[in-house]
Amino acid sequence: MLHDGWAVVCQVGLWGWIASTIGLIVNAFPRRGIMDGAAAGRWGGGMAVFFALWIAGMVLA
Question: How many helical (H) and strand (E) elements, i.e. helices and strands, does the chain have?
């Protein structure tokens, strides 16, 4: 049986991961050949957190 709360966590995790990935691409690489390490760390950390939420939501839903 599907648990609605974990299904919501799964959706939040998926869309947060997608948004964080787009944020990483846009903000960590402002110009060709240039990488902003601080922005990459923040957005990469967000990607890791949302990916973990997504996986936890899929397993526990």
Answer: 2, 0
Residue 6 belongs to domain spanning: 1-60
C-alpha span between 10 and 6 (Å, rounded) = 6
Q: Which residue has the tokens 């948004």?
A: 19
- pLDDT per residue, tens digit, the chain (61 aa), is 788 999 999 999 999 999 999 999 999 999 999 999 999 999 999 999 999 999 999 999 8
Q: How many domains does the chain fold into?
A: 1
**Integer Cα distance of 57 and 37 in angstroms:** 30
